[in-house]
Design brief:
Number of helices: 5
Structural class: mainly alpha
Helix content: 55-70%
Strand order of the largest sheet: 1-2
Order of helices and strands: HHHEEHH
Length: 112
Amino acid sequence: MEMEGLDEFARAVRSGNRRARPAFKAAMLATVQIADGEIKARTPVLTGRLRSSIRHFIRTLVGWVVTDVFYGGFVEFGTAKMRPRFYFKRGIDAALGTIRGIWNQAMRSLWE
C-alpha cells in the first residue's frame, strides 16, 4: 500500500514532534483493526478455524494482520486442486479507503 505524505509524517516523528508518535501508533492500531475485520469478513468458512486464527498486532511503528494456520496461504493463493480465494487481498482492498482516511487525519493532527 502506498500513501502520499508519509515522508513528512516520518520527518515529524524523527524531529521530535511530541504528537507524532501517539498519532502514528493510534493510526497503526486503527489500520490493523480495520484490515483484520475486512479480511475476516471475506474469509471462507468451513469450520471457522481459519477465520478465528486471524490476528492483528502492532509494534510501535509497524503493524501486521496474520494467520497461523498452515493452510491459510493455500486458501489465499490456491493449489493445483483448489482455486485461490484472495481473502486477504480482497479484505485489504476493501479497507484501503478507510485506512487512507485514518492516516490523512493522523497527519493533519500533527499540524493543528
